[in-house]
Amino acid sequence: MRIMSNLEYSFMASELSGQLSGKHFSRIRKLSERTYRMKIGNSEILFELGVRLHETMRIEKVEGGDKFTEKVEKELDNARLVKIEQVNNDRIIAFVFDKASFILEMFGEGNAILVRDNNTVCAHRYEAWSDREIKAGAPYKPPKTVPSSSLEVSDRYIIVSLTKLPLGKDYCIEALARAGIDEKTVGSTLSGNQIMLLEQKITEIRSQARPMGFVKDGKIVDFALARLSRYKGLETTEPKTLSELADAYYADVEQPNPKLEKLQERLEKQKERMVELSEEEKRYRATGDHIYANYDKVKEAIDLAASGRFDEIEKKGGKVDKKDKKIEMEV
To answer: How many structural domains is the chain composed of?
Structure first.
């Protein structure tokens, strides 16, 4: 499943804010374990935690309510949306209503948190780290670690430094391709002109961002906010909004079956174990074959040990450990 990037969340927040600000919250429905659909005005906003956020024209089957959606509906009943904004330049999107803020943390497995007066009211999932906690009644704090505001090269590959920017790996790779720099180039070896050119390409991607879908055999196989070099030669489509593009793309993507995924994961583990057992079998068989080929020597060592003639074993180059009752001989 394709996961939306930082730059795309930033673009989406701006797009949706311009469209929905001033409209009122109506409802929220749970579609699956991590997928919800929220209605603001006449628009249905779909978000899959840790994966995607966009307006949708497709009304999917509702799984049913839960305590989280019930609490959100109660607290945001008819609330007016003031704005939608990105928090700390990170993959965190806040729907700021006049009654409370509905915050989507879209990194990792994702989370949805209702916050009022800077305190957590409820959340999709309660979590705790060393520096922050998502818990009812606790102050809401976004992660302290935030994306870098500017490019800082180091002795590591340049792609590593770029991924610290609020872009997304696809856009980092595209900026490098446009600047003619290999992603495994050590950052500190780049010249001043190369760094300047790279920064120029990053600015270019950001400033010229527009929704673009890449089409193969009549189907959108990917989307971005820039023409990506790796899709050179593919047909493109440029709808008016990123939501329209994302909605079409995810509708065509085969949705994962959680039960099937667990079975596939179990099968992969069993295959790995079969390989391990096969290697062990080869090793034990080789050991057995070696012992059989040297049966006379092995039997002699056992007979000497059984009769307590340890000095003869040592004369033949063997080692005797009387305490642990072990002997060692090369055969």
So the answer is: 3
Q: β-pairing, 127-128 with 52-56?
A: unpaired
262 found inside a domain: no
Considering the domain boundaries, does residue 313 fall inside one? yes
Q: What pLDDT digit, counting tens, does each position of 236-284 carry?
A: 999 999 999 999 999 988 555 555 556 666 776 787 677 667 767 777 7
Which residue range is the domain that position 302 belongs to? 270-328
Q: What is the pTM of this model?
A: 0.76
Structural contact between residues 36 and 28, judged by C-beta atoms closer than 8 angstroms? yes
CATH number, residue 49: 2.30.310.10
Give the three-state DSSP class for 133: strand
Cα–Cα nearest to 229, from 162, 161, 170: 170
What band does 193 get if pLDDT is binned at 50, 70 and 90?
very high
Contacts of 8 by beta carbon, 8 Å cutoff, 6+ apart:
168, 225, 242
d(C-alpha 201, C-alpha 174), whole Å? 9
**pLDDT of 1 over the 90 cut:** no
From the list 149, 56, 162, 51, the residue with the least C-alpha distance to 105 is 51
Neighbours of 39 (CB within 10 A): 15
Q: By C-alpha distance, which of 48, 59, 57 is closest to 9?
A: 48
Look up residue 9 and give its two tokens. Answer: 């969340």
Is residue 231, in this structure, part of any structural domain at all?
yes
Q: Is 117 left (phi over 0), alpha (psi -120 to 50) or beta?
A: left
Domain identity same for 238 and 287: no
180 and 128 within one domain? no
Tally DSSP H helices, then E strands, for the chain. 9, 16
**DSSP annotation string for 188-216:** GGS-HHHHHHHHHHHHHHHHT---EEEEE
